[in-house]
């Protein structure tokens, strides 16, 4: 009895019977002349052990992943290769090393999905005559040396500081332009500067209860002096 997710490849006197797999359900075997091999058609999860890889920019990394595949042709999986699962696992490891060896560290960290699709396409094409269909490939983890992690962190911090300085410089430039325009407006109306002094005094008095030494404009003092002399 062959289960729903299984197929049986029957050999009669060494030849595959009917050139196709039998099942599911009840099959009949002739003793002494027939032998059969059961093949599981369910999806298999193959874990790729960590591979030490030298990237294109000469950085040593360790990368592991996982491959999901299934057998779609039981006859090909039995007749074309000795151990289909072991061969698929070894091919996945070799393909992972070959593909990642042509990528830089930045490409590896930023383009995991594209790299995984490329590995899947290569594996699917290479295992087609084994009766294998590769459903999905995922890169699980990328490990880099501690010294490289520190260097990358220092580089990122320096880049952030540089951007912060640029933003601060742009803010100072915009503020200086605004102050220039404000000074031009106040220069056109001398009374506006005095109103600005009074507004600043009001703001300070509302926030802090303290003694404030407030300077008076020189032109205001001159006008008061001239009035006293005239009187």
TrEMBL record:
Its main location: membrane. It holds the Pfam family Band_7. SUPFAM superfamilies: Band 7/SPFH domain (SSF117892). Keywords: Membrane. The keyword Signal does not apply. Coiled coil: none annotated. It comes from the Eukaryota. It is found in: Membrane. GO terms for cellular component: plasma membrane. Residues 1-156 form the Band domain. PANTHER family: BAND 7 PROTEIN-RELATED, STOMATIN-LIKE PROTEIN 3. Belongs to the band 7/mec-2 family. This is STML3 protein. It comes from Indicator maculatus.
